[in-house]
Amino acid sequence: MKKSYLFLYTLAHACIDGLCAITLFQTLPYNYPNFLFLFILFYNILAFATQPIIGFILDDTSRKKEFILISFLLLATGFLLPCCQYLRLLLVGIANAFFHVAAGAEVLEQSNDKMYPLGIFVSTGAIGLMLGTLYPDNILLKTSFLILLIFLLFCIWALPTLKSIHRNMKKTIKLPLWVPVALLFCISIRSFMGFARYAPFEGIIWLPLFFAIFVFAGKALGGILCDYFTIRRIILFSSPLAAFFYFLGPLNYWIWALGQLFINFSMPITLYLLYKAMPNKPAFSFGLAASFLLPGWFAAFFLHDLPNWIFIIIFMTNFVLLWMADQKIQPNR
Questions:
Q1: Which domain holds residue 27?
Q2: In this predicted model, which residue has the larger pLDDT, 30 or 52?
Q3: Among 58, 134, 174, 306, which one is least packed by beta carbons within 10 Å?
Q4: pTM: predicted TM-score of the whole model, two decimal places
Q5: Percent of the chain scored above 90 by pLDDT?
Q6: Is 74 within 8 Å of 92 (Cβ atoms)?
Q7: Domain count within the chain
Q8: Is residue 143 domain-resident?
Q9: How many CA atoms lie less than 13 Å away from 290 in the CB half-sphere?
Q10: Is there a single domain that holds both residue 81 and residue 213?
């Protein structure tokens, strides 16, 4: 993929996630604490569960720039105009889904069988999301995100449209149903671990951003290293290391952060393998992967204070499923 496009999409990802978080947390109904969970739940459903539907539509139209423009217009309306809190929730949730599907499909399609573009593109969302969550009232942050996003949108629109790879020429691999199911389950596992509670460290204000930096690094490094050493070699060392650091995580926040680093190596892996399983549907495959972050979020919210040995089982399962899926999709690599 051309580096200029990857750079623009990657920065825009951080801005979109940041502005969505700022709008959401400025809108939260603090006077009604019993509704906070439902409010965030509805946002997540709009932002993630709708992505496969949007992706299915986009694969038939191939109008990625138009979908990115729609995303910006929806987000700008929710962020700038004095809408009611529920309308804002609807606008920014759908805006998030439109951007991720359109930009993600572009990166998948233009990655030329490389994984580093996927890792780099998805990595910055963690930083933008955390900054927007922690500092929703910061005028400088809000202004910077908005101005930068307008500039990036202009650049994306001004650059010539990338030529779509002729999908019908791509060989669709006939796979048993368990392969995509296994990959989607691994996505939910990673989501669960990403949202797992770190009770011993709660109350330290700067820690969420600290952990987000390790999530960012894990996603970016995962794609880069897989291009050099193959998927199976990377999961062979990253999965045991993730299990080890999560097991000892409550002892020290550095250890917990390293666990976040290594589990996020699997982010570009699952995106890449799911796309390889359905190469004629890049937008749908990206949206489907994103939608399965939602079950992991649910599980992390309701299942907490788990014994540490559970992490070992989780990571052993994650490792086996990724290994088997990669072997089935890419038997010669």
A1: 3-165
A2: 52
A3: 174
A4: 0.90
A5: 53
A6: yes
A7: 2
A8: yes
A9: 30
A10: no
